């Protein structure tokens, strides 16, 4: 029997509850705390407890979006005066760190509690296996996030079923990854296929994709695990070879569907579902506002073409914009770094941004969200794993095994061809690394990628130098923008581009004094900013943990 349910419905009932043993099940289900996991409804409630923590930690778009993007060669946080983990000027006592850490470990505890409860459950074996597989997938997913952000070679505390309530020391990072692999291998065996899975829940493909990513991290610095590239190659190829999955012919459509709150499962292997039903911000997401087209005018509400205020908290770096502008055939450029915004008191129209230094990340389109309001939150789903990443993992792994491989070249060109980008004639580690930037920007990968490649400090310095050089160059003008044409809306309010230039004079490349463009680069400290510190509050509670080197 395949256990299916609409996850958002479950989350709406349980999202703001505490740990699993505190969940209140409707009385007519005849479920008590002693028999919670003895029925499918009770097991669903336990599973929802783990999923709800995933929703909670991703909804603010900080640890999964802003932190891994800001002050790299991908983007920068553009608000002045903030002092937190988004600007490289924080300490281990930062409250945001404490909250993120705590939410992750609440989710891990919920998964552990469910796994233990299912061991003693009278449910049929195959039903228990499927629920356990999903719980172990979520545990692996949560540990992966915590390990890549906080762990490093020293690792993080790793409570499992038998140690769920204990205060533990740090488990070495490589051992955390080995547990992640073990959980995902179990999940891959017992989870349903993607075609049989309700959107927003884990499937075999999600487990395989996360296994491929995990092995890529194990193969990279600081672990350099022997044989891990081969495993990354094999698991990514297993997803690629699955006839159910295919690249969406339209790069833009992937993100249009996310904005509409739909589940596109052919390319998207796993996504976190959000809801804005009844305008409930507990279940909603900030990704459309933080990483979408900038909309300033709150008056552009229902009945207008554009809906939903977008704050544009992160600018694309000028170096990323120039990479895209170097190949105007690449459709990802105008999708991810669109030089248009909605100006206040401008009749709800879109106009050109006046500086190539000030283009907000535009990957996510708030105006396609249903039930948009002036709040930052909406029902915008978050893409966790996509098929295009599997092609790029495969390419990276194969090229490490056999440098210059045609298989690696063909995999990268599959991704580029979908975007109408100019195909590559040869392949290298650098080309694959750049392709990950172009394809996966603003999806929460860049800083973690640069860390595992050992390139973070180099890219921080290169980006700052590029910005300083171009900002001081009176001859640097965005003349290529005159070819981009007018902005129009096509069917279903999807942006299209006309052929008539909207501006025929060079652009002004100024930096707005209201924002900070260099603070995060200036404050970068290579001795510690490759990794987040263990929250100081956690050290006070758990004296078995030692702080991360450098902090």
From TrEMBL:
<keyword id="KW-0732">Signal</keyword>
<feature type="domain" description="RagB/SusD">
    <location>
        <begin position="340"/>
        <end position="551"/>
    </location>
</feature>
<feature type="domain" description="SusD-like N-terminal">
    <location>
        <begin position="87"/>
        <end position="216"/>
    </location>
</feature>
<dbReference type="Pfam" id="PF14322">
    <property type="entry name" value="SusD-like_3"/>
</dbReference>
<dbReference type="InterPro" id="IPR012944">
    <property type="entry name" value="SusD_RagB_dom"/>
</dbReference>
<keyword id="KW-0472">Membrane</keyword>
<keyword id="KW-0998">Cell outer membrane</keyword>
<protein>
    <submittedName>
        <fullName>RagB/SusD family nutrient uptake outer membrane protein</fullName>
    </submittedName>
</protein>
<dbReference type="InterPro" id="IPR033985">
    <property type="entry name" value="SusD-like_N"/>
</dbReference>
<dbReference type="Pfam" id="PF07980">
    <property type="entry name" value="SusD_RagB"/>
</dbReference>
<comment type="similarity">
    <text>Belongs to the SusD family.</text>
</comment>
<dbReference type="InterPro" id="IPR011990">
    <property type="entry name" value="TPR-like_helical_dom_sf"/>
</dbReference>
């Amino acid at each position: 029997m395949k256990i299916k349910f609409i996850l958002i419905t479950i989350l709406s009932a349980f999202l703001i509850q505490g740990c699993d043993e505190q969940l209140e099940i409707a009385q007519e289900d005849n479920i008590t705390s002693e028999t919670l996991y003895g029925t499918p409804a009770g097991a669903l409630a336990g599973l929802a407890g783990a999923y709800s923590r995933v929703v909670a930690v991703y909804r603010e778009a900080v640890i999964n979006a802003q932190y891994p993007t800001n002050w790299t060669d991908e983007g920068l946080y553009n608000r002045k005066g903030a002092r937190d983990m988004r600007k490289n000027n924080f300490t281990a006592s930062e409250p945001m760190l404490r909250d993120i850490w705590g939410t992750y470990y609440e989710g891990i505890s919920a998964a552990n509690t469910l796994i233990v409860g299912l061991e003693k459950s009278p449910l049929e074996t195959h039903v228990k296996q499927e629920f356990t597989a999903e719980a172990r997938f979520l545990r692996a997913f949560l540990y992966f996030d915590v390990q890549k952000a906080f762990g490093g070679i020293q690792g993080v505390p790793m409570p499992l079923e038998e140690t769920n309530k204990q205060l533990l020391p740090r488990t070495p990072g490589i051992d955390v990854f080995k547990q992640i692999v073990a959980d995902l291998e179990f999940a891959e065996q017992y989870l349903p296929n993607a075609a049989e899975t309700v959107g927003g829940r884990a499937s075999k493909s999600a487990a395989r994709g996360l296994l491929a990513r995990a092995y890529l991290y194990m193969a990279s610095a600081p672990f350099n695990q022997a044989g891990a590239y081969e495993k990354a190659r094999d698991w990514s190829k297993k997803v690629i070879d699955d006839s159910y999955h295919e690249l969406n012919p339209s790069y833009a459509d992937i993100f249009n569907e996310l904005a509409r709150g739909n589940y596109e499962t052919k390319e998207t292997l796993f996504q976190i579902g959000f809801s804005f039903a009844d305008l409930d911000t507990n279940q909603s997401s900030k990704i459309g506002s933080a990483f979408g087209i900038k909309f300033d005018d709150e008056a552009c509400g229902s009945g207008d073409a554009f809906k939903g205020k977008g704050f544009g908290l992160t600018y694309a770096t000028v170096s990323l914009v120039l990479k895209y502008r170097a190949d105007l055939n690449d459709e990802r450029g105008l999708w991810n770094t669109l030089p248009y915004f909605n100006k206040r008191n401008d009749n709800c129209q879109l106009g050109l941004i006046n500086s190539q230094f000030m283009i907000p990340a535009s990957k996510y389109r708030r105006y396609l969200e249903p039930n948009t309001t002036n709040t930052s939150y909406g029902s915008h789903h978050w893409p966790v794993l996509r098929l295009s990443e599997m092609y790029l993992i495969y390419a990276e792994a194969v090229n490490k095994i056999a440098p210059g491989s045609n298989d690696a070249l063909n995999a990268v060109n599959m991704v580029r061809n979908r975007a109408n980008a100019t195909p590559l004639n040869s392949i290298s580690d650098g080309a694959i690394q750049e392709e990950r930037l172009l394809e996966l920007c603003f999806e929460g990968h860049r800083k973690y990628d640069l860390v595992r490649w050992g390139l973070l400090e180099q890219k921080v310095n290169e980006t700052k130098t590029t910005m300083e050089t171009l900002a001081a160059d009176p001859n640097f003008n965005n003349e290529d923008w005159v070819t981009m044409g007018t902005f129009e809306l096509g069917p279903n309010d999807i942006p299209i581009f006309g052929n008539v230039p909207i501006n025929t004079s060079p652009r002004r490349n100024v930096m707005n004094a209201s924002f900070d463009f260099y603070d995060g680069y200036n404050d970068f400290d290579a001795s510690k900013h490759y990794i987040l510190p263990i929250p100081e509050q956690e050290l006070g509670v758990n004296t078995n943990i030692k702080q991360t080197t450098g902090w």
